[in-house]
């Protein structure tokens, strides 16, 4: 990266978050609100999904600007009907390696 990443968790209003996202070339985020804000802003996105099904919760439309990073565990996705499955290990998140995210970033950025 040429510039230091911005970690804005809990430090912005929704409007400030949208303005911040609008300045980004690429957004790395989980499967929450900032993901959908970045989609609306037509940003390149690497979205990390643990127990939530990326085919259900998004990013849409699949326009070649988004890569979802998941792990291949048998119990995934377990988030259904707005409830999480019973899980003590969170392997769906722990098995996602930093290299998986970096590879997705490099692919979207054309490195």
List the helices and strands and how they pair.
Elements (H helix, E strand, L loop, with lengths): L13 H9 L3 E5 L2 H8 L3 E5 L5 H4 L8 E4 L21 H4 L3 H12 L2
Parallel strand pairs: 1-2, 2-3
Domain unit count: 1
Number of helices: 5
Work out the radius of gyration: 14 Å
- Number of separate strands: 3
Biggest sheet: strand arrangement: 1-2-3
CATH class value = Alpha Beta
Classification by helices and strands: alpha/beta
CATH fold type: Rossmann fold
* pLDDT averaged residue by residue: 90
CATH superfamily: Glycogen Phosphorylase B
Q: What is the architecture at the second tier of CATH?
A: 3-Layer(aba) Sandwich
Categorize the overall geometry: globular
- Sheet of most strands: 3 strands, parallel
Distance between the termini: 11 Å
Q: What fraction of residues sit in β-strands?
A: 5-15%
Helix content: 25-40%
Identify low-pLDDT runs: none
SSE order: HEHEHEHH
Structural features, described:
This protein is an alpha/beta fold and 111 residues long. The chain has a single domain, classed as Rossmann fold (3-Layer(aba) Sandwich). Helix content is 33%, strand content 13%. The chain has five helices and three strands; from the N terminus they run αβαβαβαα. α2 links the parallel β1 and β2. The longest helix is centred in the C-terminal third of the chain and has 12 residues. It is globular. The termini are close together.
Brief write-up:
The protein is an alpha/beta fold and 111 residues long. It has a single domain, classed as 3-Layer(aba) Sandwich (Rossmann fold), CATH 3.40.50.
């Amino acid at each position: 990266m040429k510039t230091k990443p911005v970690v804005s968790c809990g430090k912005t209003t929704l409007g400030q978050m949208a303005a911040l996202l609008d300045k980004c070339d690429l957004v790395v985020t989980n499967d929450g609100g900032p993901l959908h804000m970045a989609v609306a802003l037509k940003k390149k996105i690497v979205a990390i999904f643990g127990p939530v099904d990326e085919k259900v919760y998004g990013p849409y439309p699949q326009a070649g600007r988004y890569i979802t990073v998941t792990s291949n565990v048998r119990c995934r996705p377990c988030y259904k009907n707005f409830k999480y499955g019973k899980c003590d290990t969170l392997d769906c998140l722990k098995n996602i390696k930093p290299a998986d995210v970096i590879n997705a970033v490099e692919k979207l950025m054309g490195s």
